From TrEMBL:
Entry keyword set: Cell membrane, Membrane, Transmembrane, Transmembrane helix
Superkingdom: Bacteria
Organism listed in the record: Qingshengfaniella alkalisoli
Similarity comment: family membership: Belongs to the 4-toluene sulfonate uptake permease (TSUP) (TC 2.A.102) family.
The keyword Ribonucleoprotein belongs to this UniProt entry's keyword annotation: no
Residues annotated as transmembrane: 12-31, 37-62, 83-104, 116-137, 174-207, 213-231, 238-259, 271-292
Record's GO cellular component terms: plasma membrane
InterPro entries documented for this protein: TM_pro_TauE-like, TSUP/Inactive_protease-like
Pfam families: TauE
Membrane topology, from the record: Multi-pass membrane protein
Protein's UniProt name: Probable membrane transporter protein
Predominant localisation class: membrane
Amino acid sequence: MQVYLPIAEVSVNGLLLLGIGWVVGILSGMFGVGGGFLITPLLFFIGVPPAVAVATGANQIVASSVSGLMAHLKRKTVDFRMGLILLAGGLIGAALGVQLFSALKKIGQVDLLVTLFYVAFLGIIGTLMLIESLNAIRRSRNPNLSRPKRKRHTWVHALPMKVKFRSSGLYISLIPPLVIGAAVGVLSAIMGVGGGFIMVPAMIYLLGMPTKVVVGTSLFQIIFVTGFTTLMHAATNYSVDIVLAVLLLVGGVIGAQIGTQIGVKLKAEQLRVALALLVLGMCLKLALDLFIRPDELYNITINKAALG
């Protein structure tokens, strides 16, 4: 069942797109991730242009994040003051990222930039996840090994412009949350990800936030930043494909329910190792594609925006 994607300007098997959404939905349900850093490279592999994959992949993150945020609102595990500061930085970062994305698209370098970003970040994140997961398995098998203690007070707490965050029990500077939010906003615009895989560790280990409010606060910021990024890409780069977005969403909603059931039956340490290996595998595939000679050495495209 071939489906023509009008913005991507390619024909792709519709069942394959549903399958990708379904698989990423399962992984999202199993591992508790938005799936943006998984679904975008998978779209690369089936021939969707990186510019369209990045802009459209954000829709999947918005949908899954809204569902997750609702659950956290019921449990009152969202720090809205921290979320708003992260959001302010995220919107600034996303606006800058979209402008950079647009400039690189005009000179024909956006595909290479996106791929290089994914190779770098997937390699770093996958390696760190694998090391942490293996250490967790060692600790579970040997109870005598102590878990490393997280410092509550670091250099971050000595910065000026301090504000009290009652839900998180913190009294810290506005500067680190703004910088973290801006960095995640840039990544969202360039890579089509929510940035939770970077934001959550930063909130825990850099800001010192309690784990119980980290995920909900992160989701609050991600929803608005990815939504803003999608609108900016649609208005600036005309790269959001609604047909692709709908097919991925349908598959993702179904897969997430299955993944949640699977995740309950497996150990957390085993899940993290599996996810780390998956991330490293995708990193290796993208890196190899940079060096393998393509079947078509030349690709002639028409810049619709330039033609008006």
